Amino acid sequence: MSKTILAILEQGRFPEAVTRRAAQIAKLYDCKLDLVLSDPTIGLLRNRYMISGDSKQIADNVRLAQQEELERLASTVSGQGLEVQTDVIKDRPASDAIIARALETQPLFVVKGTEYHSPAERARITFGDWQLIRKLDYPLWLVKPDDWDEHPVIIAAVDPMHPHDEQNLLTRAIIDLAKSVADKAAGKLLLLHTYESMEEVSEYAKFAFKPLKVPVAELEGKMRDEHQARLASLAATEDIDTAAVNLLPGRTREILPAFARSHNASVVVMGAVARTGLKRRMIGSTAEHVIDHVPCDILIARG
Q1: How many CA atoms lie within 13 A of 222 on its CB side?
Q2: Per-residue pLDDT for the chain (303 aa), expressed as one digit of tens each?
Q3: Contact 36, 90 (CB under 8 A)
Q4: Residue 292, Cβ neighbours under 10 Å: how many?
Q5: Are 240 and 189 within 8 A, CB to CB?
Q6: What is the pLDDT of residues 246-267, one digit of tens each?
Q7: Region of residue 223 (phi > 0: left; psi between -120 and 50: alpha; otherwise: beta)
Q8: DSSP string, the chain
Q9: CA distances for 119 relative to 123, 163, 266, 285, angstroms
Q10: 109 contacts 25 by C-beta, under 8 angstroms
Q11: N or C: which end of the chain has fewer CB within 10 A?
């Protein structure tokens, strides 16, 4: 794997902030910076269905504007002692072109901006962010436009009881990435695991088995003890201070964004699980909601 940070810049997704963050990461990891403007406009204008004689001139004008914008963005970080190279991706779909570029450069991280996605956008099979999460083989760093604190808080969101990660391979990948970022940035690492409480589970049980009385308090205690033991074992194995370990009952989609806000986090590290028998990683509705509502950067580890 090369010492390269591949930064994907998109108009309308705060390219200046993405450029700054990518340069910050490149400096932390002593990497060169590959700034790539993703804009398939030219590819569309040169489509064989575009029969207007003006389309070539329009494409040339767009290409010139793209190059000027890319050079402007590169100039904002070129004085930081970084080796910076630039390029434009014009192929469609953009997610496939980004993946092809990553395979070519083998980056340490792929960095790009992200923002809130409506349910309709999440439902589109070609939507770029979700395609990258599912198919990209390199850690994906999704940037939101807020600046980091001087000593950033890095949250490793883990599930040591995940049925598709029985050997904790993804969990360890999440922790390794979070430790690495916290160490490089002189930050603070927090370990977070959430679990659905028995009160919430029993609400479903009431609908499904109305005559059944669920012993909520007893089961709640056993469940918490089991999760606590598994999380404590993981923290000990990974040499994480007990003061940094957090176990909270509730739905991840609600707890994680609130936890990140309350701790003024700069990065949340989470994982995309590779399901047995499937070529693509899966990311469910909970993770989609979390990515949309977490107020800081999200770093997707690979498992």
Answers
A1: 6
A2: 569 999 999 988 899 999 999 999 999 999 999 999 987 765 555 554 455 566 677 767 778 888 889 999 999 998 888 999 999 988 778 889 999 999 999 999 999 998 766 655 555 434 578 788 888 999 999 999 999 999 999 999 999 987 777 788 899 999 999 999 999 999 999 999 998 875 555 555 455 555 556 566 676 778 888 999 999 999 999 999 999 999 999 888 899 999 999 999 999 999 876 554 444 444 545 666 788 889 999 999 986
A3: no
A4: 19
A5: yes
A6: 999 988 889 999 999 999 999 9
A7: alpha
A8: --SEEEEEE-TTS-HHHHHHHHHHHHHHTT-EEEEEEE-THHHHHTSTT---TTHHHHHHHHHHHHHHHHHHHHHTTGGGS--EEEEEE--SSHHHHHHHHHHHH--SEEEEE-----HHHHH-TT-HHHHHHHH-SS-EEEE-SPPPPSS-EEEEE--TT-TT-TT-HHHHHHHHHHHHHHHHTT-EEEEEEEE--HHHHHHHHHHH-TT----HHHHHHHHHHHHHHHHHHHHHHTT--GGGEEEEES-HHHHHHHHHHHTTEEEEEEEEEE-TT-SSEE--HHHHHHHHH-SSEEEEEE-
A9: 6, 27, 25, 10
A10: yes
A11: N
Reading the block at residue 209, the tokens are: 């088995």
